[in-house]
Amino acid sequence: MTQLRRLRVTSRQDLAHLLSLSKNTVSLIVDELLEKALVQELGPVSVTAAGRPKIEIALLPEKLKSAGVMVERNAIYWRVCDYFSQVMVEQTRRVDTSNPKKLLDEVANLCGELAQKHPQLLGIGLGFPGIVDPDRGWMHLSTHLGWQDVDLLTPVRQKVAVPLRVMNNVKASALLAVQQLGLKTECSHFYLRIAEGVGGALVQQGEVVTGHSWTAGEVGHINVQPDGPRCRCGRQGCAEALISKPAIAQQLAQRRPGLSWQTRDEAPKVVDEVMQQAGGFLARAIGEVILLLNPASVIIDAPWNLHPLFCDTVRKRIAAGTPAFTFQNTALHFLQTRLDPAVGLSLAVIEQFEQRQG
Fold this sequence. Notes:
This protein is an alpha/beta fold. The protein is built from twelve helices and 16 strands. The protein has helices at residues 2-7, 12-19, 23-35, 100-117, 154-157, 169-180, 240-243, 245-255, 268-293, 308-321, 324-328, 341-357; strands spanning 9-11, 39-44, 55-59, 65-72, 75-81, 87-94, 121-128, 131-133, 138-142, 147-151, 164-168, 188-194, 198-204, 207-209, 297-301, 331-334. It has a five-stranded mixed sheet, sandwiched between helices. It has a five-stranded mixed sheet with strand order 14-13-12-15-16, sandwiched between helices. It has a three-stranded antiparallel sheet with strand order 1-3-2. Helix 2 (12-19) packs across helix 3 (23-35), helix 8 (245-255) packs antiparallel against helix 9 and helix 9 packs parallel to helix 10. The longest helix is centred in the last third of the chain and has 26 residues, at 268-293.
């Protein structure tokens, strides 16, 4: 199923070769998928060599759905996706997230509705900002939501029969980033997301590394300016306090009252100054990630990627601050379209489904 999802179109012979399985074994599995109407045959591939022609096969992605429900401060976003992570249904609801019990009851009701409307659902991914233990389904701390020590899984599981997967929102987005960029899963990749906060995640061998206390990848709390502004975590000079959306909004307004990212064309020189400074701060944080983790690539998912000076500053400062050989062997990807964590959550459900089949 993983190979069929990644390749989109293939053949029994090619699957047997990729998976090091006998052609007979692969044919039996494909025949079973054909009977369930999950796969279709596209027809023979014309070949010049003698022998039996390959018959191309492809998944029917709309037959297998998954959903992602993402909670952020005062909002719930949800997406229903097909097996290729294409969004089929999406919606946003403004809610009060100050009360964990009330919010989780609402999430449970929503999940019940989704399961009823979409009987093909393989499962639902639940995403939250903060320190989340994905195995236990437990929120240790979320400064964004103001939550601490909350059982995320039990209230939803009591009302929903489909499989559930609980994750941190950024870590779910990291899985999606690796898939969308077509990166090699046998390599390690670091994903960094700038939004209301700044988070990150290391994807290694196709799996998100959570760490001993589920805080691996917290790049937003790397100190990039000694004695800088105070961060929500209580420390000074964290990257999050300097390059997050609220931080940049504050810096723009301080330099010119009324100026915002949306009205940046009104004062390009001021915006250039802020973006160049932000790029330098981000480069310091990424430089430490590259030196410590040595990932094959770093994926930057930030609204500031639309500003060329920001991206150029990040590249130049990282190049100047890391050994040449290391920098030359680390790919930098600046995403021009923001990833949707809710879609990442639905992908996490699909990957969980595939692992269970194995």
